[in-house]
Design a protein that fits this description.
Helix content is 18%, strand content 31%. By secondary structure, it is of the alpha+beta class. The strands form 2 sheets. An 8-stranded antiparallel β-barrel has the order 2-4-5-6-7-9-10-11. The protein has a two-stranded antiparallel ribbon with strand order 1-12. Helix 3 (90-105) packs across helix 4 (110-123).
């Protein structure tokens, strides 16, 4: 994600990471979670501390043979996270930490994740810095793995069952949305974005299909106009973004959260 993440390479995948638990995650999750240094969050709640939710995400084992990992050790993007932390209530901070624990373990019950998402939505945090944290200060941007999706009005939700990764490029105003089955198969949509306050609208322009080591097949969606994406198009409303997780609601009304991830190399 800090490096080139174009899907044209036949020997790449996403690999799981978890510093706190130090266990081998399921190959289905296929990513590397990223947590920026110095971004630990403590929780005033004793119960939250017991869950270990204040620890930072980092790298552990592999899901495929011959994978190479890159540690998440880059410095902060420059976004004033300390200023953001000052406006967090204990309830919001505990909810953020709960989601970070859910991203690491996938064992936090949906009945706990849903109210945490609701608390973060209702907090209406200042979105200043969200886009740069989400999409990085330079191309090709940053990648985020979809962890959990909730239905409209938080009526239900579940952990996303396959590896779905979004790349947001703030500098290049680009988006890439992909589903990956390790190094075997990937389906990605790529397009352009616009940002207004906390709303990221997007228009997909092409599809890329990749099978194993074969060269990818690209199909144009025929959207050649240069108009800026708007709320007439698909969009996300972002409620929280830091160096580890992001929370947003889609145009359809469903809410989701992502964790930062990094691409790694793999061999067949």
């Amino acid at each position: 994600m800090m490096h080139s993440i174009r899907i044209a390479s036949p020997l790449t995948t996403y690999s799981p990471v978890d510093s706190a638990l130090q266990h081998r995650a399921s190959p289905l999750h296929g990513i590397c979670l990223v947590g920026g240094p110095g971004n630990r969050r403590s929780v005033s709640s004793p119960a939250a501390r017991t869950q270990g939710v204040g620890s930072r995400l980092a790298v552990v084992g592999a899901t495929l043979d011959k994978e190479e990992y890159e540690l998440a050790s880059e410095s902060s993007s420059g976004v004033a996270l300390d200023d953001q932390e000052q406006q967090l209530t204990p309830e919001v901070e505990a909810s953020i930490n709960l989601l970070k624990n859910a991203a690491k373990t996938r064992k936090v019950a949906a009945e706990e994740v849903l109210p945490a998402l609701s608390v973060i939505e209702k907090a209406k945090l200042d979105p200043t810095g969200f886009l740069e944290t989400l999409g990085g200060p330079q191309s090709p941007g940053r990648t985020w793995m979809l962890i959990f999706t909730a239905e409209k009005n938080m009526k239900g939700g579940r952990y996303f069952p396959v590896t779905a990764v979004q790349r947001f490029d703030a500098a290049g105003k680009r988006i890439e949305n992909g589903v990956y089955l390790g190094s075997v198969f990937s389906l990605t949509f790529e397009g352009r974005i616009s940002w207004n306050k906390r709303i990221l609208a997007f228009i997909f322009e092409r599809i890329r299909i990749k099978i194993g080591p074969l060269q990818p097949l690209e199909v144009s969606l025929g959207k050649k106009d240069d108009r800026e994406p708007s709320t007439k198009d698909p969009f996300f409303i972002w409620f929280y973004v830091d160096e580890e997780i992001a929370v947003a609601r889609g145009k359809s009304g469903g809410t989701a959260f992502w964790c930062r991830c990094r691409r790694v190399a793999a061999g067949f």
